[in-house]
Design goal:
By secondary structure, the protein is mainly α. It has 14 helices and six strands.
Length: 343
């Protein structure tokens, strides 16, 4: 297994994508987008809206993609993804992704796809959807094509996605062995750049997920966020105001560990365990820091959304940059496969 982290990384070409399947929330920001902001400062980054990947599970309702893709791109820019530092584009606007996926599918053993851990896990978790499709089985290979088309050196992932990068490395190795013998390899074997995971739970203490209805959306109004936080469940032992509690049994404490100072955390610990503060006092302390982070993002969202032509120009420029690079790769792929016909 090849993994790396930011502290060990020299300048690399990085590829990462996100599926437009719903409103982005605070978990996406703390778990993915903050990592992107760090990566773009040091590396050559390609960030794409993975709309074809969204169809692997939502093929019966493609309107979800249309309804959310532009909102997602606005969120990216609002949190600080910089199109001057990173290539921001839409996957389906670069047909070379699909062409490489098709060509790689001819040489990829079926067993390689069936052993990807998330394949069976997602079929089990998404029982309400018919996922016995060619596209769903092959989506890890489409991911490989997304990465290899830009000859990426690294991909930011969590622990659960490392097997996908290992598949990509195997596919790159197999292609280079079959078609590039005696000449330099076309595809580098990309490393898994293990990213810090979000320490924020959902509002109910479970994983923050739209399916649980426990999220704070990046685009929602502050009064909505404030109401949600004030209604967060706390330590069940604190039935009355003068009941002592245990911060570690409360999801609000996890937010404090991300947003509050050490002094404030000590105040919460002492106040909760001694019942000298109430749960609303605790929540209001954390809310002020949450507001400091989210309100500037939401103001930028409003500004970006008010200029749709500028947004489309940014994405169009990103599409063109990505397409040029993908076309260069596919020219080399076709040459390797002896498919450069002159007609």
């Amino acid at each position: 297994m090849s993994t790396n982290d930011l502290s060990q990384s020299k300048t690399k070409r990085i590829v990462s994508g996100m599926r437009p399947t719903g409103k982005l929330h605070l978990g996406h920001y703390k778990g993915v987008l903050e990592n992107w902001l760090q990566l773009q400062q040091q590396h050559q980054c390609y960030f794409f809206a993975a709309d074809w990947h969204a169809l692997t599970t939502d093929y019966a309702n493609p309107s979800i993609v249309k309804d959310t893709i532009w909102d997602m791109l606005i969120d990216w820019l609002a949190v600080g993804v910089d199109p001057e530092k990173a290539v921001v584009f839409i996957q389906s606007e670069i047909p070379e992704h699909a062409e490489l996926h098709l060509l790689l599918s001819f040489m990829t053993p079926l067993s390689w796809l069936e052993r990807v851990p998330t394949y069976k896990d997602q079929i089990e978790q998404l029982r309400e959807k018919e996922l016995g499709t060619y596209g769903f089985l092959g989506y890890p290979l489409l991911q490989s094509a997304d990465i290899l088309i830009y000859r990426a050196d690294g991909v930011p992932v969590g622990e659960d996605q490392v097997p996908h990068i290992e598949l990509t490395r195997e596919v790159a190795r197999r292609f280079n062995h079959l078609y590039r013998q005696g000449i330099p390899p076309l595809f580098p074997e990309p490393e898994s750049l293990l990213m810090p995971t979000s320490k924020l739970p959902g509002l109910d203490g479970r994983k923050m997920s739209k399916s649980y209805g426990n999220t704070i959306e990046l685009a929602e109004e502050w009064k909505v966020t404030e109401k949600k936080v004030k209604q967060m469940p706390t330590d069940p032992a604190r039935v009355r105001r003068d009941d002592a509690g245990t911060p570690e049994k409360c999801a609000v404490w996890d937010f404090h560990k991300v947003y509050s100072s050490k002094e404030e955390q000590a105040w919460v610990q002492d106040g909760c365990t001694s019942a000298s503060i109430g749960c609303i006092d605790c929540k209001m302390c954390m809310l002020k820091h949450l507001e400091e982070e989210l309100q500037p993002i939401r103001e930028r969202r409003i500004d970006i959304a008010s200029r749709p032509d500028d947004l489309r120009d940014i994405v169009k420029a990103g599409n063109e940059k990505a397409r040029r690079e993908a076309a260069r790769s596919m020219e080399k792929v076709r040459k390797s496969l002896k498919m450069g016909y002159r007609v």
